[in-house]
Amino acid sequence: MDISAINSGLSAGGLLKGSGPANNSYDSATTAAEAASFEAVLKDLQKKAKVTADHVVNEAAKDKQDKELKEACKGFEAMFLNMMYKEMKATVPEDSLFGESNAQKIFRDMHDEKLMENIADGGGIGLADMLYKQLSPQVNGRIDKGV
User: Fold this and answer.
1) CB-based contacts of 20, cutoff 8 Å, min separation 6
2) pLDDT at 95
3) Do residues 128 and 74 touch, judged by C-beta distance below 8 A?
């Protein structure tokens, strides 16, 4: 049963205000547009989740130095995202009605830092991947030379 059948049943019973043929078609069109928009967002998020699994820094490390390089790249991306997020939040005016205590500021900073670490760990914006691809030949060259 779709939403247009429900709306027509409600309008027949007089439960919808101003229910008429124009209202039913408007309601069903609005519902259909919202459903299509939701489907598009859902498909986009599913595609991004699939891409996240393909990130280079999320693959298993070959050796200890490779693992450390991947962690350093993720840490750098988390730090970069955190700085970018702080600058973005600085543009938003503070709550002047109640203010904000020092403890609240510290808690929000810690929360934001952990949030950005989680984002970087989940794939982030791809900065860690680019850094890893750029730096891995140098690290692997050191390993091959025995440095």
Assistant:
1) 11
2) 75
3) yes
